[in-house]
Each structure stands twice: as C-alpha cells, then as structure tokens.
Amino acid sequence: MPIRIGLTCWLWEWRRSRGLERLAERWGVTLRLEQRRRGLLRLIEGEVSGPNVDRFLTEFARHG
Questions:
Q1: Is the pTM of this model over 0.85?
Q2: What residues have CB less than 8 Å from 55, skipping those under 6 apart?
Q3: Are 35 and 44 in contact (CB under 8 A)?
Q4: Number of helices and strands (H, E) in the chain?
Q5: What is the chain's pLDDT, residue by residue, as a tens digit (64 residues)?
C-alpha cells in the first residue's frame, strides 16, 4: 500500500519537487507526484512505495 506525502512551496521553487525525485532514486522507491497550482503556490502530493519507504520518509522529514 502506498504512503501519501505532501508539501506546499512557491511556484518558482521547482527544486523541491526535483529534490523529492532524487531522494526517491537514491533510496530505490517508486514516487508518483501530482502538482496543483493555487495562486503563486504549488501543492505537491505524492505516493511513495517500495522496500525503503521508511528511509525515504526519514530523509524527507529531515530535509523536506
């Protein structure tokens, strides 16, 4: 079962979503992102699954 994650950032902070993708690659998990715009904000929601989800979430919480 995938775990849902989310964050909010400004539209020009594209590196946040790219950072999530790099983190997923590093820990070998599958990440599916959805982005919605609300004014100048981006709402990023995702689902993560795989064998190293716990490590991914730990790093996400530490650096996200």
A1: no
A2: 27
A3: yes
A4: 2, 3
A5: 677 877 777 666 767 778 888 989 999 999 888 888 888 888 888 889 999 999 998 988 887 5
Token reading at 33: 């992102």
DSSP 12: T
Structure tokens at 31: 């990440």
| Residues 24 and 37 sit within 8 Å (Cβ to Cβ) | no
DSSP, collapsed to helix, strand or coil, labels residue 41 as: strand
Contact 46, 34 (CB under 8 A): yes
Q: Token digits for 9?
A: 């950032």
For residues 42 and 8, give the distance between their C-alpha atoms in angstroms, rounded to a whole number. 6
